[in-house]
Amino acid sequence: MTKDQIKTQAEWVFAFGEPTRLAIVRALATGVKTVTEVEKATKTEMVNVSHHLSVMKAAGVVAAERDGRFMRYSLLGAKATASEIELTHESGARVVVTLN
Description:
Elements: H1 3-14, H2 19-28, E1 33-34, H3 35-42, H4 46-59, E2 62-67, E3 70-75, E4 78-80, E5 84-88, E6 94-98
Antiparallel strand pairs: 1-3, 2-3, 4-5, 5-6
Helix pairs in contact: 3-4
């Protein structure tokens, strides 16, 4: 791997290394949500949710799609089961988060 590829992979892994971001992953594991829906699911202030979603989007963890006046967020490279969600980076790196 090149230094740039390693840096990209590290940024992706870093995007999971914060409690609010893990809560967002868990919230999005059940499907696409708006910032307001993520705010309610995580019991986190909207400004904080927006900030963390921005970090996660920049790292390639989430995708955002405009739906009228709302942005809808979804996880990228995610496979969910009843008890966990596995996220895979384009480099092959994987993160598994338990949902219980």
